[in-house]
Design a protein that fits this description.
The protein is 74% helix and 2% strand. It is an all-alpha fold and 219 residues long.
């Protein structure tokens, strides 16, 4: 625990944060919203190049991209301003904000798909910027390509050097991918019965993470 703030250190938070909840959340979130938001920003850029109609490009592709950039900026500003705030950790503040805006998405009709895509893209960016490590290893909580590369590289290192730490690192990355896949499967199937309201389950998972960080503060 940091003696000056009463909070656990940055490294301790990264080690203890219930990261599997967050991966379940966002994989479920994307599968629930379906066409509302594209998971990978590079794919968004490629798709944007295929659409020359200005209005479609702006509303379906450019706005979500700009929202993603804004989300990163806002998360970074919140960290800088509230890093030593004593009543609540700045990461908890971001989680609470995500819960509120994603809960609102569940009420949006299909006619507001574009607005929902922008909001989710913004939330996704805040998530990526805020939670960037698990057990000290850099990772991405809302996409799998980078995690797959890092996990496979660690596994390759273990095969050649036989270092237990490398195997442990590979297992963390593959574990993140596994829980992402579980969340995607659950979200996709449940959304067939409950529609976009299933996003509220994701809000519940975020709330669990939010409360567990209070427990970590006490410890």
């Amino acid at each position: 625990m940091c003696p000056s703030t009463g909070f656990v250190s940055h490294r301790q938070l990264n080690r203890q944060l219930p990261i599997r909840f967050l991966n379940l959340l966002f994989s479920q979130l994307y599968l629930t919203l379906g066409p509302r938001v594209t998971q990978e920003k590079p794919i968004l850029v490629l798709q944007s190049g295929q659409h020359i109609r200005c209005r479609e490009f702006i509303f379906k592709y450019l706005f979500p991209i700009l929202a993603f950039a804004l989300g990163v900026l806002v998360a970074d500003l919140i960290q800088k301003k509230f890093k030593y705030f004593k009543k609540i950790h700045w990461r908890q503040g971001i989680l609470l904000f995500e819960i509120i805006i994603l809960f609102a998405v569940g009420f949006m009709p299909k006619s507001m798909d574009t607005v929902a895509a922008v909001i989710v893209s913004f939330s996704c960016a805040m998530q990526v910027q805020t939670f960037r490590k698990v057990r000290g290893y850099s990772y991405a909580s809302t996409m799998c390509i980078g995690n797959l590369r890092s996990g496979t590289a660690a596994l390759s290192g273990f095969i050649h050097e036989r270092k237990p730490e490398q195997l442990r690192q590979a297992m963390y990355y593959f574990g993140v991918i596994f829980f992402f896949a579980v969340g995607a499967g659950l979200g996709g199937n449940l959304s067939l019965s409950f529609g976009t309201h299933i996003i509220w389950v994701s809000c519940g998972l975020l709330l669990v993470s939010f409360l567990m960080m209070f427990k970590e503060k006490i410890q």
